Amino acid sequence: MSKNIKLVHPRDQITEVISRIYKRGMTTTSGGNISIIDDDGNIWVTPSAIDKGSLRSSDIICVQKDGTVVGKHKPSSEFPFHKAIYEARPDIKSVIHAHPPALVSFSIVRQIPNTNIISQAKHICGPIGYADYRLPGSEDLGEVIAEEFKKGYKAIIMENHGTVLGGSDLTDAYERFEALEFCASTIIYGSQIGTPKYLTDQQIDEFEAQATGVLPEMKTTTYPSYEVEKRLEICNIVKRSCQQGLMISSYGTVSMRLKGNDFLITPTGINRWDIDLEDIVQIKDGKREEGKTPSRATWVHQEIYNRNPNVNSIIMTQSPYLMAFGVTGEYLNVRTIPESWIFLQDIDFVKYGNHFRKNNNSEIVDNCPTALIIENDSVIVTGDKLLQTFDYLEVAEFSAKSIVLGHSLGEMVPINDEQVEDLRMKFLA
After folding, report:
1. Strand 281-284 to strand 287-288: parallel, antiparallel, or no bridges (unpaired)?
2. CA 347, CA 349: separation in Å to the nearest integer?
3. Distance CA 346, CA 335 (A)
4. For residues 375 and 351, what is the distance between their CA atoms, to the nearest angstrom?
5. Which ranges of 71-198 would DSSP assign to H, the alpha helix?
6. Distances from the Cα of 123 to the Cαs of 85, 158, 179, 242, in angstroms?
7. What does the pLDDT look like over 351-393, one tens digit per residue?
8. Domain 212-428: assigned CATH number
9. β-sheet bridge partners, residue 380
10. Which of 232, 344, 424, 429 has its CA at a distance of 20 to 30 angstroms from the CA of residue 5?
């Protein structure tokens, strides 16, 4: 989907985003609905009782400002609350409603997830409202939801129902939706292995205050063919990470070394699903490509490349099961199966704030381990080829998931020291 969504028809925006939501397992065939209100006051909305896994642009319904319905299906049964939101909040231009499992868990225990669980979510999601239960599809439901939106909320937990979120456009609404479900998942998974810890508002403000684009700009930039290949590789891995739930729209950095200590890195402030070749930022001789703002984690990547000549690619991201360990501080023992230990050995853990540039923390950049978890922030995975690094990330997330899921069965029995030594001799000697 084009980053300039004003150039994409509402029908196509809606089908793209509902496809992402369905494929990520955040709604069912029959559940969830999306709408966009255009500049003429017409509301484009998903149809009622049509498979969310195979929606086409031609399936999207237009409810015109005068109430005329244009399309071959009925509009979503939840259309009344979409309309009520737009009437209550003229700044809201898109609405997403769905039943993602983690947020439904919060809705049925009647709690609101604390978005201070990770660094950027508070600012993306904003404060979270709560709407009492009303009959689905009813005018009453529209009224209670609209009342919450009138209070200034853009994200609402719907009691025993799910969630509804609004945004300045569909990309904004989806980033909020995805970040909130990620927070909910991380809290739930973390609670299975320990006690989640939350960041203070001051810690989050310090994260947000980190300067971006502090590197000076280079005057001219050349694009040799081998670099174009690497840009494509980065874009493909970012999209694959998003598709597999290893990265979310609002957070995730990927980089690849070029020659010497020069490298390519993803930008800040651009939805990860929509990153394109031209968005990737070249860092050369300590300078950034003109007119582009690289990730705020650029300094970490730069120092890893400077001090670790064998590292040629880095992924810094948030994935739910790894972050369950990141928010609890519980030790992630990857002596689960041979593959996990061979690829990862031990995963280090550093305190929140040590990844800020002002600290220039040697735990992160000196002798960088294959994988490292930063408290309440992210996981950093390093390797040679980017596909290899992505494989390490997958293995780490699968290992974390196995431990979280296995926790209810009993105490983990790791591979013992003798078995580890056998692995070391056979695969690492």
Report:
1. antiparallel
2. 7
3. 8
4. 5
5. 79-88, 101-109, 121-125, 139-150, 170-193
6. 21, 21, 10, 20
7. 988 777 666 667 788 767 899 999 999 999 999 999 999 999 9
8. 3.40.225.10
9. 316, 372
10. 232
Residue 75: both structure tokens together = 């509009």
Question: Which superfamily, per CATH, for 5-193?
Answer: Class II aldolase/adducin N-terminal domain (3.40.225.10)
Tokens of 411: 């105490």
**CA–CA separation, 256 and 234 (whole Å):** 8
| Alpha-carbon 185 to chain mean position | 12
Q: Is residue 281's pLDDT more than 70? A: yes
Paired strand residues for 373: 349, 379
Please give the DSSP secondary-structure letter assigned to residue 7.
Answer: G
Determine the pLDDT at residue 49. Answer: 86
Tens digits of residue pLDDT in 191-245: 999 999 999 999 998 888 876 667 899 988 888 888 999 999 999 999 999 999 9
In the block, residue with structure tokens 């891995």: 237
Q: Residue type at 196?
A: P
Rounded distance between C-alpha atoms, residue 12 and residue 6, angstroms: 11
Write out pLDDT tens, residues 244-255. Answer: 999 999 999 999
Task: Give residue for tokens 């003429």.
Answer: 40
What would you report as the CA-atom Rg of the chain, rounded to the nearest whole angstrom?
A: 23
Going 13 to 15 to 21 to 26, the CA torsion angle's sign is positive
Whether 399 shows a pLDDT value over 90: the answer reads yes
Lowest-confidence segment of 60-64, 138-142, 264-268 by average pLDDT: 138-142
Nearest to 166 by CA among 261, 84, 265: 84
Is residue 317 within a helix (H) or strand (E), and if so which, with residue range? strand 313-317
Listed by start position, the domains of the chain span 5-193, 212-428
For residue 3, pLDDT over 90 is answered with no
Residue 6: CB atoms within 10 Å: 8
What digits encode the pLDDT tens for the residues 45-92?
999 989 988 999 999 999 999 999 999 999 999 999 999 999 999 999
Tell me the whole-structure pTM to 2 decimals.
0.94
Q: From the DSSP assignment, how many helices (H) and strands (E) are in the chain?
A: 14, 16
Nearest-angstrom CA–CA distance, 429 and 426: 6
Range with the poorest average pLDDT among 4-18, 138-152, 301-315 = 4-18
Q: Are 5-193 and 212-428 equal in CATH topology?
A: yes
Two tokens at 238? 């970012």
Contact call for residues 295 and 306 (beta carbons, < 8 A): no
| Residues composing the chain | 429
